[in-house]
Amino acid sequence: MTTLTIMRYLPREDPGNVSYSEIGGLSGQIRELREVIELPLTNPELFQRVGIIPPKGCLLYGPPGTGKTLLARAVASQLDCNLLKVVSSSIVDKYIGESACLIREMFNYARDHQPCIIFMDEINAIGGRRFSEGTSADREIQRTLMEVKMIMATNRPDTLDPALLRPGRLDRKIHIDLPNEQARLDILKIHAAEDVRNDLDYLAKDISKQSEEGTT
């Protein structure tokens, strides 16, 4: 499979200039993500000194639209590295072995273009509960996924195979929940920074109230 084929299926995404300060309401999740992905890459000697094996990767899970992709882009931007965003449902094989081959070549591409972060969204499409007992293609996917650090995301963590989540694979699970009132206020302060005339405290409370009413 050629680089041209890989980039047609998995086009390299420019993470842009995204800083952590532009993400509101997720300070705890940002800290965890930096510990898992950023720290082992920027300060590997810290892990070597105490004899700790760095995490292999992490799973971001939570409802759609809560910032999982934005967090992955921010990490890639802060590390100034390439970002391959993969929607897992789009590479489920049409023919036997096709998805395994594509994922294997994707990792080869990432190694040849280091530093590179692979972000796999909708991982439940290929990491379901029968993942570890599936076809040879499924087992090839599982083996290949564990070779490098990566970030995965899903809004259905309950459907994932426990084999994918055990230590040594996706070592850290980070919950990205719907924003509460304080998180909404932080988000509004970021996106309305130039419009100081608005009463942001009132807006945050009003949005929170409307959201709660909409779910009842």
Automatic annotation (TrEMBL):
Keywords (A to Z) from UniProt: ATP-binding, Nucleotide-binding, Proteasome
InterPro entries: 26S_Proteasome_ATPase, AAA+_ATPase, ATPase_AAA_core, ATPase_AAA_CS, P-loop_NTPase
ATP-binding keyword on record: yes
Molecular function terms, GO-annotated: ATP binding; ATP hydrolysis activity
The AAA+ ATPase domain, residue ranges: 54-180
Cellular component aspect of the GO annotation: proteasome complex
Keyword set includes ATP-binding: yes
PANTHER family: 26S PROTEASOME REGULATORY SUBUNIT
Similarity comment: Belongs to the AAA ATPase family.
Annotated protein name in UniProt: AAA+ ATPase domain-containing protein
Organism: Ailuropoda melanoleuca (Giant panda)
